[in-house]
Amino acid sequence: MSEHWRQPDKDATESHGQYISAIYRHMQILISAELTPYRIGSGQYIFLMAIAFQQPITQKALSEKLLIDKTTTAKAVNKLEAEGYVRREADPADNRYQLLYLTETGREVVPKVQEALGRVKNKTRKGITDEEYDLLVDLLKIVLRNLSEQEEMKR
């Protein structure tokens, strides 16, 4: 082996992005397994929970709140509506918009979804103090804000 070769710096071979991506994939698998009994996919629960905490809400406002494109939001809301968890009503202030509400079935399933998400969250927090977890979330918010600002500057 050449004497000029050296081990790359940790910074050159490791990226927070690879860990975020792997964490996301593993969490989606766990969340999907937890939510299977309710016919809610790992891609729909965040919409269900956002509607639960801020109803009525328009699809547009839901997309903006979750930082998710309108097409993905529409598909998720359609699935939740098909499962009987969400209903739409015309906005009395502007008939062009639909307001989203939970149905009775939706209200009944939300605590069960919260419990399931809590079980997954507890698995992710094992060995991490509350302060460390809060710092992790705060740092991830900063990374997201940095990336969102870069995207906005390009528009």
TrEMBL record:
Keywords: DNA-binding, Transcription, Transcription regulation. Signal peptide: none annotated. It holds the Pfam family MarR_2. Residues 13-145 form the HTH marR-type domain. The keyword Endoplasmic reticulum does not apply. The keyword Cell membrane does not apply. It comes from the Bacteria. This is MarR family winged helix-turn-helix transcriptional regulator.
